[in-house]
Amino acid sequence: MRLGVKIGLAALLSFCAVLLAVCMGSVPLGVADTLRIFAHKVFGAPLPAGVSTASVAILWTVRLPRVLLAFCVGAMLSVSGTVMQSVLRNPLASPFTLGVSSGASLGAALVILTGFALPGLGGYTLPLVGLLSGLLAAFLAVTFASRVDRGMRSTTVILAGMVFSLFINALLTLLYALAKENIQRLLQWQMGGFALRGWTELWLLAPVGIVGVLLVTGFHREMDLLTFGEEDAGAVGVDTRRVKWLLLGLSTALTGSAVAFAGVIGFIDLIAPHIVRKVFGARHVVVVPMSALLGGGFMAVCDMAARVVTAPLELPVGAVTALIGAPFFAYVYFRRGREEGGA
Amino acid sequence: MSIVTLEDVRAGYRGRDVVHGVSLAVEAGECFLILGPNGCGKTTLLRAVAGLLPSRGTVLLEGRPLAGMKRREVAGCVALLSQLSQVYFAYSVYDTVMLGRYVRLKGAFRVPTGADKRCVERCLAAVGLWELKDRMIDTLSGGQLQRVFLARTLAQEPRVILLDEPTNHLDLKHQTALMESLRAWTREEGCAMVGVVHDLNLALSFGDRMLLMRDGRVAACGKPEEVLRPEMLASVFGMDVAAYMKRALSRWEAI
Fold first, then answer.
1. A150, pLDDT greater than 80
2. CA of B235 vs chain A CAs: smallest distance (Å)
3. Is A54 helix (H, G, I), strand (E, B) or coil?
């Protein structure tokens, strides 16, 4: 199948995923009604008689921003995972490899346990502190790696990230042991989700996501070259140390921002890039945008499942991404291997 | 002016020198080969000339000190085919060779132009891989893969081509074909080729001049007949190379 057709199908699939996620919920909405409400709100088209104002309110103020936020977070985590796997040349590398989630969790835990709020920010203290502490953890890990190994070899970066993650997780465990009464809230944040998120969060996160994905795409040739090894990339003209710092920084910023608003949601960052490479090939000029598109669509569907399956009780999105993603990943990733093995 | 000049170059790893005070000059159009036993510093010397390893002393590329050049400038002048190329994700042969154009791509989006495509096609033809241009590199043999990376090195259009054991993985026919095409390329383009080889017969057949290294130092440097002298080879390799070659030749003649 031609690449253009594949990209078109991926865009259609992603659009359908978002539409499905918007339609489905405790109050289901028809596809036609959903599109009519959208046209009414965006283009000022008249609202048909059969559509209630309650449906408009549910779709416009609750469901659409939540689904779009889920799409945005999924896209950012997937692109971040793509960067990590390519730069570190490790199929198991993910944005969380550098300790972003551990750092963010520790920052969030401190805010939750102390009740600390930055003046003028109120409820946004938690995501902001989460973001900053996630970035700080990753920065410390990469700085440490660059100090012990000037070439910043992949193994050094991964090991440094692991060391920092384990150390921060140990601090987090100590906090859990010391403050048992707040554990529920802390666990809820750590499991991730999009409940009670609206347009404000979306307007804050979307620009970061769009700019981040575009900047990462701009480095597609450098990522292509880095997959052949640091020596090869350097010989062809890539300033490997600088480019690695930039890409790891971009990836960490994407993950940190997503985690700040949605909590820790794993797995999607690991599987989306692998599936995209299987379908679209290895060139990052295609892999990065397709990871964003399909990762976003997948997250929207997972969030829908988290809302719908046990309604009114909501499941943690992180668990749903793994439950749906693991078998799908196994099917896509190992099917071709089995076919090649049998050939 | 020499295309590459080395003056008292020292380089190594973790503060310990492997190359000690090497000085030489390579001219345009020349096929310059580096020989020596394992661990004598051949690859280290190549990496230092490519600017991938910090070195002391002076490396001049067309008269410009390597020390003051940016990574992109170095890659526009020197290309290295290393022994350590790895395949982690599967790209097509064509796309892999196009990556060699990295420093030549122009414009905000660095989209390959007609000239870039023609250059890639020429490099693929030079290494005999034009028919395989659409194949994925993870389906190639070791020898074919080595030629893909060589084509990528040529696609940089460097003034100096550094080759670290370029004939690794190749059968005899492909070894000679590759060396012949490289020599022709070097002369047509007016660039220089500096290659590490282990095969003394190959060195004798294709080297215009050569450097024989021992323990990171220059044991001999000059034309093949000046370097490949029996007593010199015996002292560097610790065996009677000439006698070994003659014995092998007499066995061939007996077949």
1. no
2. 33
3. helix
